């Protein structure tokens, strides 16, 4: 995130509540400019607000070893001004118009977004198009250095200075083979952030920040025809870049189970169990989301009820399926209560994993998880920001901005058999990474381990 | 790989099909200056409807029909400020326990029923208000409302659930020892308000009080404050008054009124000199900095000027604090400031997490900005006013957000035209107003400075600044000793 405060997520979403099966229609218009920029437009006049959201289809997965963290560092640099926008003015002009903006980077894409009063739509398009077309005209090594420091502090705040903060950096490194695009963290390593050069900035921009590698969604209080023209006006003159090659990763797999321990400045030990899972929108990706909910969503979920509610050996438990393009990871995370070891915790978790592989969950368990998902899905249709982001997300992965019904149907179609099948297929006992994070000097609290990793 | 290729093919196909849209010769675009903005749009909200149930319970309704969702919040004038002496955390524990079984259902059955509907029912104790909230798809409204009414009116307070919550909270207290930000905020509130003021100690309570609560006390807190004459229902969503009222009357109409004594509190003593509090967190990669003093109540006439002043100081991305500490110096991922607006004067706080080796330099920059805020430019004023006033409509998109805004009207007794006049009132703030409130509420000579970080690396530099007397504390002195579970 560019900002230290995470912006909140989320009308003419037409929903028929009377019908038993809610059919969601989020009407959109898509145009493709001659330079390859996809533009997706959606009108929702319920508040005089417009959301502008642009995806560049480049995330940390496109980085090179030795230059990790670059896609995200670059995200910061994009706010430092462009040919016609002096340094600092991107934010100033937008805020002066009543707008908010931010950006985010993950393994697969970088995104930038603005929320503006509808009279400031042109301003937002001017600012976005100027940095897409003319960023390098105003770039300097000093600007890169400034944001390098900010990003290092982002890393300190989000990872080093946070309890258990180094867990995911370690897990990604262990889950993927060396050289796999997801084997390094999006935030990057301190050494690589230091090593990033001015030339890297120039080349990264030329390679990836081109209209044919971007999608622009505009949702809110707009006139569709006028907005089409505005998008063409501001973005039409930017030349197409090179053709973007498909990403070609080495396969991600684990040959065996890895068992690790790390000491941290924490009071309580925490266990992480992680597996490879199918990529977003593929295979049993939605089933895995529902399985995570059956395992750890709410008081009646299996792990929560057993470990936190009944036995009270754990303070918290969560399970989720973190979906990415090239493959997802399925994660179970449990913090032990004091007086309890991770051996004890792991044994209980393993019993629940064995059980969900052995016998179907009840229909009510599955339906409860699906219903909760459906309600949160509807909640995401309330704001123009969320709709704009969802258009881009759907388009990125499916080529169809209005994938709302298909997406919801993936979840509604999940049944108990699917969950058992998914558990058997993905939650292998012999192909996973099991990480214990324990208080300093308390390795005896860890689950069995074969390797010690240190907090860098 | 295959998927990506097929996506590209699809895009091309659609492009051909869609090419009805003709592209002219690229226009010449004037980028020499940002585009002119037309007049800002005004926010026109649906009417705020004031209704009453048969027992007098007030209902505030705003219809919103875009998405079939409903938010229902029951606001009760009962918060952590009403914790009896020696029972800090009682309001908070009562709220937590209202989610542990109600009506005919025990904790698990209640959670299952709500989750199965896709409804979200929660109870939260604020400083002066406890809110029971329901978020539900419209299609499940009837069943969800019945559960919601059970949680609000008929919580069971099972003894075994209290023990479970007690253990959970003691563990949370233990985990706070790992969180430098929690340590910083806890100490800051303590320094400003002290142990006997409702805004001082953590609202969750301390080890002693958490260990002390019994079921009878929770039930008593609930029965003392939960009466229709001490509450308001706020409803936002895809409903009409006509459809809603019979449902609410059926569920809440028989709720009995009761006598509720009004609460009084001691006022806190303002910070009268500058003092620094240092807490050692060995090995910390950053120092948590919290600086400030007591601010002012929400009902102040200075509300709008303060909002604008704080936006300039630390309330937006381009604010002086963020621009200085993050953009100019790269000391931090972000810096900001805020006034905590409550029925009584809350805190004014400026804060940042900065990298350890520049802690002293960062403090110097903080002091500079706190001093300079009584001088502002017209340009800053205009930008800040526009930012606050013109972004206001975007806060009214979701039923949950709107219900939260309506709660402010109820709690502070603001007029119905408050929302519609907000923009006008912010835009009316003058430079003199901002300077006046900056001098009145931001006094860099009379502030508390809290730093949580690696003292072996930061203490010397901070001492050299000679900002004032220094008091050193350990994390345990701030949070209490680490609770040991099992010793109930």
Distance between the termini of chain B: 59 Å
Evaluate the radius of gyration of chain A. 23 Å
Unreliable spans of chain A are 1-20
Q: SSE order of chain A in H/E notation?
A: EEEEEHHEEHHHHHEHEEHHEEHHHHHEE
Tell me, what's the shape of chain A?
globular
Let me know the average pLDDT of chain B. Answer: 93
Beta content of chain B comes to 15-25%
Q: Write down how many β-strands of chain B occur, each being a DSSP E stretch of 2 or more residues.
A: 14
- Order of strands, main sheet of chain A, comes to 3-4-8-5-7-6
Would you write up a description of this structure?
The complex is a heterodimer of chains A (456) and B (488). By secondary structure, chain A is of the alpha+beta class. Helices cover 39% and strands 19% of the residues of chain A. Chain A has 15 helices and 14 strands. Chain A has helices at residues 70-77, 89-96, 121-134, 141-160, 167-175, 190-195, 198-208, 224-235, 285-296, 302-310, 342-358, 363-379, 384-398, 404-412, 416-426; strands spanning 14-15, 24-25, 29-32, 38-43, 49-56, 100-105, 110-117, 214-220, 258-264, 270-277, 314-322, 328-336, 433-439, 451-452. In chain A, the strands form 3 sheets. Chain A has a 6-stranded mixed sheet with strand order 3-4-8-5-7-6, sandwiched between helices. In chain A, strands 11-12-10-13-9-14 form a 6-stranded mixed sheet, with helices on both faces. A two-stranded antiparallel ribbon of chain A has the order 1-2. Chain A starts with 13 loop residues before the first strand and ends with a strand. In chain A, 57% of the residues are buried. With 488 residues, chain B is an alpha+beta fold. Helix content of chain B is 42%, strand content 18%. Chain B contains 18 helices and 14 strands. In chain B, a hairpin with a 4-residue loop joins strand 6 and strand 7. In chain B, helix 2 packs across helix 8 (215-225). Residues 1-26 of chain B have low confidence and may be disordered. Classes of the chains: A alpha+beta (456), B alpha+beta (488). At the A-B interface, strand 3, helix 2, helix 3, helix 4 and helix 8 of A face helix 1, helix 3, strand 7, helix 5 and helix 11 of B.
């Amino acid at each position: 995130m560019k900002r230290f405060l995470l912006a909140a997520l989320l009308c003419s979403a037409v929903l028929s509540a009377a019908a038993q099966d809610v059919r969601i229609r989020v009407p959109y218009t898509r145009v493709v400019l001659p330079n390859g920029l996809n533009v997706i437009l959606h009108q929702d006049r319920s508040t005089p607000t417009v959301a502008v959201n642009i995806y560049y289809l480049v995330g940390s997965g496109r980085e090179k070893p030795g230059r990790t963290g670059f896609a995200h560092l670059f995200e910061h640099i994009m706010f430092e001004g462009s040919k016609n926008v002096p340094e600092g003015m991107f934010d100033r002009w937008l805020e002066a118009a009543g707008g908010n903006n931010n950006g985010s980077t993950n393994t697969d894409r970088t995104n930038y977004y603005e929320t503006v009063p509808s009279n400031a739509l042109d301003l937002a398009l001017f600012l976005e198009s100027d940095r897409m077309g003319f960023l390098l005209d105003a770039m300097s090594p000093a600007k890169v250095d400034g944001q390098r420091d900010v990003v290092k502090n982002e890393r300190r705040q989000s990872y080093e200075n946070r309890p258990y903060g180094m867990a995911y950096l370690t897990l990604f490194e262990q889950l993927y083979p060396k050289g796999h695009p997801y084997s390094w963290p999006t935030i990057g390593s301190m050494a690589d952030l230091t090593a990033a050069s001015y030339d890297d900035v120039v080349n990264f921009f030329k390679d990836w920040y081109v209209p044919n590698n971007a999608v622009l969604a505009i949702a809110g209080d707009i006139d569709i025809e006028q907005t089409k023209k505005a998008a063409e006006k501001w973005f039409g003159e930017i030349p197409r870049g090179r053709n973007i090659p498909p990403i070609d990763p080495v396969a991600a797999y684990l040959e065996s189970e890895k068992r690790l321990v790390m000491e941290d400045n924490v009071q309580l030990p925490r266990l992480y169990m992680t597996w490879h899972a199918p990529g977003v929108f593929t295979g049993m990706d939605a089933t895995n989301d529902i399985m995570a909910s059956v395992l750890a969503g709410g008081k009646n979920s299996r792990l929560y009820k057993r470990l936190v509610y009944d036995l009270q050996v754990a303070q918290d438990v969560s399970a989720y399926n973190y979906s990415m393009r090239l493959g997802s990871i399925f994660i179970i995370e449990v913090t032990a209560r004091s007086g309890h070891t991770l051996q004890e915790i792991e044994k209980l978790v393993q019993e629940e994993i064995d059980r969900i592989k052995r016998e179907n969950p009840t229909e009510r368990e599955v339906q409860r998880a699906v219903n909760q998902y459906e309600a949160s899905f509807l909640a995401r249709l309330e704001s123009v920001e969320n709709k704009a982001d969802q258009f881009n997300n759907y388009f990125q992965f499916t080529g169809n901005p209005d994938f709302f019904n298909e997406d919801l149907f993936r979840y509604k179609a999940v049944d108990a058999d699917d969950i058992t099948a998914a558990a058997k297929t993905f939650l292998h006992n012999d192909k996973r990474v099991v990480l214990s994070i324990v208080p300093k000097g308390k390795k005896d609290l860890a689950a069995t381990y074969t390797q010690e990793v240190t907090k860098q | 790989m295959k998927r990506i290729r097929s996506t590209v093919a699809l895009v091309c196909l659609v492009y051909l099909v869609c090419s009805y849209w003709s592209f002219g010769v690229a226009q010449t675009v004037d980028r020499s200056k940002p585009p002119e903005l037309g007049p800002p749009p005004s926010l026109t909200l649906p009417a705020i409807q004031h209704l009453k149930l048969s027992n007098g319970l007030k209902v505030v309704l705003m219809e919103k029909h875009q998405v079939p969702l409903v938010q229902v919040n029951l606001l009760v004038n009962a918060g952590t400020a009403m914790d009896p002496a020696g029972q800090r955390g009682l309001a908070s524990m009562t709220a937590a326990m209202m989610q542990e079984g109600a009506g005919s259902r025990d904790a698990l059955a209640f959670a299952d029923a709500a989750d199965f509907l896709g409804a979200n029912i929660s109870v939260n104790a604020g400083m002066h208000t406890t809110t029971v909230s329901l978020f539900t798809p419209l299609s499940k409204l009837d069943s969800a409302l019945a559960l919601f009414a059970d949680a609000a009116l008929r919580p069971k307070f099972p003894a075994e659930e209290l023990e479970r919550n007690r253990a959970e909270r003691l563990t949370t207290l233990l985990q706070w020892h790992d969180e430098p930000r929690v340590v910083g905020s806890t100490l800051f509130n303590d320094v400003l308000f002290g142990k006997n003021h409702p805004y001082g100690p953590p609202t969750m309570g301390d080890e002693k009080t958490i260990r002390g609560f019994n079921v009878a006390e929770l039930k008593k807190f609930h029965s003392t404050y939960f009466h229709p004459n001490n509450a308001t229902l706020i409803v936002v969503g895809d409903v009409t008054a006509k459809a809603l009222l019979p449902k609410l009357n059926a569920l809440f109409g028989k709720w009995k009124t009761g006598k509720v004594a009004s609460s009084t509190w001691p006022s806190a003593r303002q910070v009268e000199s500058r003092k620094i509090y240092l807490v050692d967190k060995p090995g910390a990669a950053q120092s948590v900095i919290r600086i400030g003093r007591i601010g002012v109540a929400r009902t102040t006439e200075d509300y709008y000027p303060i909002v604008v002043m704080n936006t300039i100081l630390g309330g937006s991305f381009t604010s002086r604090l963020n621009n200085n500490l993050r953009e100019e110096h790269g000391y931090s991922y972000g810096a900001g400031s805020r006034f905590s607006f409550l029925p009584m004067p809350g805190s004014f706080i400026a804060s940042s997490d900065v990298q350890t080796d520049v802690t002293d330099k960062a403090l110097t920059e903080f002091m500079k900005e706190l001093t300079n805020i009584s001088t502002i430019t017209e340009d800053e004023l205009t930008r800040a006013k526009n930012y606050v006033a013109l972004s206001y409509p975007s806060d009214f998109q979701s039923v949950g957000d709107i219900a939260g805004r309506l709660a402010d009207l109820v709690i502070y007794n603001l007029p119905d035209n408050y929302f519609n006049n907000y923009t006008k009132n912010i835009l009316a703030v003058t430079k003199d107003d901002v300077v006046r409130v900056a001098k009145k509420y931001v006094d860099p000579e009379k502030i508390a400075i809290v730093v949580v970080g690696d003292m072996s690396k930061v203490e010397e530099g901070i001492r050299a600044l000679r900002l004032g007397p220094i008091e050193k504390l350990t994390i345990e002195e701030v949070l209490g000793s680490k609770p040991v579970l099992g010793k109930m």
